[in-house]
Write a structure and sequence with these properties.
Distance between the termini: 12 Å
Radius of gyration: 21 Å
Oligomer: single chain
Order of helices and strands: HHEHHEEHEHEEHEHHHHHH
Largest sheet: 4 strands, antiparallel
Structural class: alpha+beta
Strand content: 5-15%
Number of domains: 2
Shape: globular
Number of strands: 7
Number of helices: 13
Helix content: 40-55%
Length: about 325
């Protein structure tokens, strides 16, 4: 049975606040990239992998050996990886905590945009005041609020279109914040358009992001259908598609249909992501097996791609 984790834990999957371009074009920091790869190709496996194989896997994305080993050390310190030794070799596996976080994060990512439940017209609101000397706590709160579907309506007042009060109260307790108030409310009829809660999101910019994602991912899918993508490219392209799609839950709170402009592209973008991600899975997994096989053929045979259908099965 899955263990429930706090928003702070699951927000490991949220998009980086400052994203940096890697030589391969994949925009992830090495620790999060490694978690993504283990979640995609070593899902629910308990065997340890040679650390050298993980360093080689990260090299596919332009990550240097030193940066890869620093990522392994950081994830071990954060109790997301467990290391062991056999002779002169170091082996690594996901901790139970990391595996549970990966499962919850994957469910969140793959369920996003699947279809909105009927909206009751109620908004979740959080008002808070955190002094400048606690900037780190304030930044952590803002980052994790976006993962929950909130956006700032005014300074210190954040809104979300769904009932997120329970999650917010847990988040406030975890961060040790007492100067905050969470509540639910409806918008008063007759408010001018500039005063409506949904203006907290820049829907024009969000539409442009969806359109760009559809264009790039559509081209990728067409090349894959034509058999023009190698296992090496498939691994990088699939991870990039995941990374780009994973950013949308922090930008789009799954606003109810009633609040969206006509022909909103979220559903089309989700369908394209799911089909392309699953389509590239076998090729990408083949490349992962090639890399692990340099160090251990028996372990390499156990690598498999994590599909959207597997996530849906676990969610049920």
């Amino acid at each position: 049975m899955a263990v429930s984790h706090s928003p702070a834990d699951v927000a490991i999957f949220a998009a980086d606040g400052a994203r940096e371009m890697r030589p391969s074009g994949v925009m992830q920091r090495p620790p999060r990239l490694l978690l993504t790869l283990l979640g995609d190709y070593w899902w629910q496996r308990t065997e340890s992998l040679p650390s050298a194989a993980l360093v080689a896997l990260l090299a596919e994305f332009g990550v240097s050996d030193s940066a890869a080993r620093a990522a392994l050390s950081r994830l071990t310190r954060n109790r997301l990886l467990v290391t062991s030794r056999s002779g002169r070799r170091t082996y690594v596996r996901l901790s139970d905590r990391a595996a549970q976080i990966l499962d919850e994060g994957a469910r969140h990512i793959f369920s996003f945009g699947r279809g909105c439940e009927p909206w009751d017209g109620m908004w979740s609101l959080l008002a808070f005041s955190i002094p400048e000397e606690n900037r780190a706590v304030r930044d952590a709160l803002r980052r994790q609020l976006r993962w929950l579907g909130f956006a700032p309506l005014y300074d210190g007042l954040w809104v979300a279109p769904r009932d997120q009060v329970t999650d917010v109260i847990g988040l406030l307790g975890e961060l040790g914040i007492s100067t905050a108030t969470a509540f639910r409310a409806t918008a008063v009829p007759g408010i001018e358009p500039d005063g409506l809660p949904q203006r907290a999101w820049d829907l024009d910019d969000l539409r442009a992001r969806y359109d760009a994602f559809i264009t790039v991912t559509g081209q990728l899918q067409a090349r894959a259908l034509a058999g023009l993508i190698s296992p090496v490219e498939a691994l990088v392209a699939r991870t990039r598609a995941m990374d780009e799609w994973r950013a949308f839950p922090g930008l789009d709170p799954d606003l109810p249909v009633e609040l969206l402009p006509a022909e909103w592209p979220r559903a089309a973008a989700r369908e394209l992501f799911i089909t392309t991600y699953d389509q590239l899975g076998p090729l990408a997994a083949h490349r992962v097996r090639q890399i692990i096989g340099r160090y251990n053929r028996d372990l390499a045979a156990k690598a498999a791609y994590h599909s959207s259908e597997l996530t849906a099965t676990v969610a049920r």
